[in-house]
Amino acid sequence: MTSAEGGAPPAPVSAQVTPGPRAAGACARCGVATTSIRDAEPWCPRCEWGLDRYEPARRHPEFGWQWVDRRTHRLAYRLTRHTFQQLISEGIDRRGGGLSRAVTVVASLLLLVLVALLVACGVWLLVHDFPALTIPFGLAALGLAYALRPRFGRLDSSAEVLDRERAPALFRLVGEVAAAVGAPVPDVVAVDGAFGAYATAVGLRRTRVLCIGLPLWAVLSPQERVALVAHELGHFVSGDVRRGLLTQPALTMLGAAADLVRPVKSSMVETSGLGVLLAEVVQRMLARLLFTAHVVLVGLGQRDAQRAEYLADEMSAKVAGSTAAASLADVLLVVDAVEMVVRRDARAGRGPAEWRGSADEARASAAASLPALRQLSVRDDASLFASHPPSGLRWRMIRERPQHAPTVALTEARLEPIESELARHYERIARDISWGG
């Protein structure tokens, strides 16, 4: 990553973005010249032959065995394609979920019952015929129940909560977008220094949180900012399994249990013997069994999560307009180049207006590569653990669905007071970027 210092002029943006696609032979299926970008294996831009290739050199291993990663990548690619085609042909159902939601809820309820039984058993072992030799077993049962307890999340410590009285223009925009989406107004609106945004529900009471990453917010056009807020608020009404009170345990508890029973070698204690070896074998088998069940449940949940992402995009298009929603999806394809120039400008002491100008240049330089990048994202982003569909498929979904004009408009004049309210937060984020390297 390069950066500019002091008041030096910015480095040419064209040197920091992905070069355009290059021809790489002919398609074995339809004879069209294949294409490639980012040193990827070539594929056909017309029929997408070869796009499902697994490229271990360009991917981080997920399971650690290449033969497993290759097969799970192919499976994830097919499932991702199937979800896309199904939603294109049948439409995006706001209720959604189906079998995956039912399985996730049932698994969560069973796991909660298990934790309740551990608590009850632990208490009984503690108090029955007190004092007795069963006390250590009771404490162990309670400790296990505590370790397996469901986690309902909390507000990230890096997020800075905004005051409605000090940011009235932003809160008015959020309220207007929430009304247009048909979503509840978030209980908490916050900002942080991440190049992204999220909406979530935290705590047992499911406090609704909208957090906007100011580096991303600064580089978007006004209408893309509406699309961003609409997408995130759409998750409050999209039936996303990741945010449900009755679905969280299935997505977290088995993974925690697998970590808990996995044997850990310590250099402080040397142990040997048949009993120790047998216990380690049992622990490893149990850990793998629990992890496999965790993978299955997460895989089911992520299929529904992708449906929820498509639905949030649909809501975003209806509120901000299809053009802005599709443009926002394209930002994700060149996010590395955009983030690079933002960090460079922040270190050089330039403000949000300069960030946006540099980002616009980076996006313009990458425009010719977007069709290839959209297709390549389908290969690169295919994963059983991916909660978001590939950005290229999100763009296609928006473009192939009915087109919408914006119902909430954010002009430059209306944006100005919002930026004034965020000025001191921008300054803090810029300092953090400068100091953080």
TrEMBL record:
The chain crosses the membrane at residues 102-126. Signal peptide: none annotated. Keywords: Cell membrane, Hydrolase, Membrane, Metal-binding, Metalloprotease, Protease, Transmembrane, Transmembrane helix, Zinc. Binds 1 zinc ion per subunit. Its cofactor is Zn(2+). Residues 167-401 form the Peptidase M48 domain. InterPro entries: HtpX_protease, Peptidase_M48. It comes from the Bacteria. Residues 1-20 are annotated as: Disordered. Belongs to the peptidase M48 family. This is M48 family metallopeptidase. It comes from Phytohabitans kaempferiae. The lineage of its organism: Bacteria, Bacillati, Actinomycetota, Actinomycetes, Micromonosporales.
